[in-house]
Amino acid sequence: MNRRLEMPLLPPELQVSIERLREMADEDWLASILYGRASQDRHKLMRSIDDQLMELVGWCEPIRWCPAVIVRDSDRSASQWRKKEREGFDEAMALIEEGNHGGFATWEPSRAGRDLEIYVQLRKACQRAGVLYLTHGRVYDLSRSDDSFMMGFEFLRAEADANTMRERQIRTAKLNAEKGRPHGRLPYGYRRVYDEHTGVLLRQEPDPHKGQIVRHAAREVLAGRSLYSVAMELQDAGEPTPMKSWVENPRGWDTKTLHQVLRNPTIAGKRVYRGEIIGDALWEPLISWEDFQRLQRMFADPGRRAKGGGGTPAKTLMTHVARCHYCGRPLRRAVDKRPGKTPAPKYQCMFRGCYKITISQPGLDAYVEEAVLSWFEQPANLARLTASDDGSEWERQARDAEQQRAALQTRLDEAIAQYTAGSLNLDTLTKVEQTLRPQIAEAERAMVPPITDERIRALVTANDLRAAWAALGMAEQRKIIKAAFDVRVQQTTNRGQNKFEPERVLMEPRIR
């Protein structure tokens, strides 16, 4: 984004001062770049930056510098831990490199950067272009060794100040976490109460309205409603979202927003530090710890992600449930409608760079259904399915496994993309797949919670299992299959034949 500001965007007093200098300037005046930065400017008022620029303009007149360009960075850190790019500073560096300006000015060195690497870049750019540096009301020539040394010391001190502030913040955050105190961004569903005179934080407590929204959403999801339907209810009602009030065009309520709220242990009265629950918090929980754990199990249940649980119902049993054995993507239903061909419904892998799987849809549906019922009918499996587990150890393992699976899948996707682009041969891709596929499968198995699903429990304990299965709707059947089994399909070895080959189907229970 271009941060070079036109005159109408400047405060009137600053605008008048710059116009006056430009009118006074002649060929002897040095065309200069004025840069201002503030680390926090939540309301985008740029007041601190404007104060910096006003003082810079005051320094320019006695030394006959003309402020030709004004560049600003609002709400941007300059330390080595910054998370946002500084578009304004990058533009200022580009202008220095162009060599059309003789001076560069900041209110103090820390406005340019709190990282010694930034100074090295700035020094080299100014030396190459012959640009002078104005800061603290004094002009430095960075081609001179004494000026270069003094300015290097200033930047080193600014970096040390940033390090000290960071260490202090880390210590404060850790201390607050250990004592269960609130710290950082206000979690959705709560409000903070401050002392009227000192401004000191007194407590964090449930917000009467937003807290009730969290409680309502948790109850509805636990009762079986989809995240989407609850989110749309909140969106239609115009309820406030967790988005910061100063964000332009907030996203509003959607599945991801609601999921983030209900995944936060804060709502269950737990204190989180660096992504880990370290103990009870001092604030009142919005929902019980037991309900929170139930929600996390539901979110991790593969059956909830089976298409047909909400929205447009699935038309067949295994669409988006069975997966390609090679790329891991779900198979989709397709029908061959070419002229002269008998319509033949089938499942296909539609992932670009794979397309390896095509299999009969009726054949796969019938085979999987019979295999599932046969497995459920075995007495040895009944005890495994109905075992109880509080899930606390699984939650920790599942988080680690999810991160591992995502990293492995990214590596595999990159290899497939390289093969598609022609930069990777088939032999190498095959070796990569043979190495990563088992690791991905193992990580996915570790992500699956102990199966205590009431739907499965009711099915396997019914007097007539097959009659109970037949009485279920397809959506419920699909959820049960996906929750209990990993179904993958391999390539055919008999190309040109349309018969169903059961040996191509790999089924593995999700029970460890």
What does this protein look like?
The protein has three domains: 157 residues, Rossmann fold (3-Layer(aba) Sandwich); 111 residues, Hect, E3 ligase catalytic domain fold (Alpha-Beta Complex); 187 residues, no CATH class. Helices cover 46% and strands 14% of the residues. The protein has 17 helices and 15 strands. Helix 7 runs antiparallel to helix 8, helix 8 packs across helix 9 and helix 13 packs antiparallel against helix 14. The two termini are 51 Å apart. About 2% of the residues have low confidence.
In short:
By secondary structure, this protein is an alpha/beta fold. It has 17 helices and 15 strands. One of its GO terms (molecular function) is DNA binding.
Sheet-strand content, in percent, reads 5-15%
Which residues sit in consecutive blocks of at least 5 with pLDDT less than 50?
A: 245-249, 306-311
**Broad structural category:** alpha/beta
Envelope shape:
elongated
Coiled coil: 391-418
InterPro entries: DNA_bind_recomb_sf, DNA_bind_recombinase_dom, Resolv_N, Resolvase-like_N_sf, SSR_resolvase
Domain Recombinase: 187-305
GO molecular function: DNA binding; DNA strand exchange activity
Write the layout of secondary structure elements.
Blueprint lengths: L11 H13 L5 E9 L8 H14 L4 E10 L12 H12 L4 E3 L3 H4 L3 H14 L2 E4 L2 E3 L4 H34 L11 E5 L6 E6 L3 H13 L4 H10 L18 H9 L6 E4 L2 E5 L8 H12 L22 E2 L7 E4 L9 E4 L9 E3 H16 L2 H7 L6 H30 L4 H22 L6 H7 L4 H7 L2 H11 E5 L15 E5 L3
Parallel strand pairs: 1-2, 1-3, 3-4, 10-14
Antiparallel strand pairs: 4-5, 6-7, 8-9, 11-12, 12-13, 14-15
